[in-house]
Amino acid sequence: MKKLVICITLALSCTWAVAQREVDDVARAKFMDRVYFGGGLGFSSGTGGLGRYTYIGLYPMIGYMVTNKFSVGATITYQYYNYPDYNQSLTQYGISPFARYNFGQVFAYSEYMILSSPSLIPNESRHIYNRWLVGLGFTQPIGARGSINALAMYDVLWRAGDPLFSTPWVFRVFFAF
């Protein structure tokens, strides 16, 4: 049961809202017609291996549609963790350039995450962690502009025993408008 709660919490903490629309590839669309904005929020609270915790995440995003099938962009990451039982809190922040290619309702996705986090290395205040996430997703349209998306990614730079990331797998469920 505990694993199920953790999986649901992780999935909900990675919920994204992404705005993307189609443009006419034949006619020269204006620059701003190809730009899209979005982002996401994450929140969880409860009791885990380190006692009580609260997690808040903010993920603003901007993208550019090179074609109707291919887009690039970047997401900013800000995450706050609070552990009141230890009177500890920490913040992580970073940037993740991404590329996405659509094959109908299936899409390929890749992002390179550069994340600054408090260091687990003695005498080092912060450490930069790199993740290269690649994966596949599925999009289901909802109405004229909306969709729900599910995405599974694998971190090709992950090493067993990594102190910050316990698994190379990242799963996201997000909505697009």
Strand content: over 45%
Taken in chain order, the helices and strands follow as HEHEEEEEEEE
| Strands side by side in the biggest sheet | 1-2-3-4-5-6-7-8-9
Largest sheet: 9 strands, mixed, barrel
Q: Give the radius of gyration.
A: 18 Å
Question: Which spans have pLDDT < 50 for at least 5 consecutive residues?
Answer: 1-21
Mean pLDDT: 80
Number of helices: 2
Shape: elongated
Distance between the termini: 33 Å
Number of strands: 9
Helix/strand/pairing class, anyone?
Answer: mainly beta
Helix content: under 10%
Report on the structure:
With 177 residues, the chain is mainly β. The protein is 9% helix and 62% strand. It has two helices and nine strands. The protein has a nine-stranded mixed barrel with strand order 1-2-3-4-5-6-7-8-9. A hairpin with a 7-residue loop joins β6 (106-118) and β7.
Q: In a few lines, what is going on in this structure?
A:
This protein is mainly beta. The chain has helices at about 1-15, 30-35; strands at about 15-20, 35-50, 50-65, 70-85, 90-105, 105-120, 125-140, 145-155, 170-175. Mean pLDDT is about 80; it is low at about 1-20.
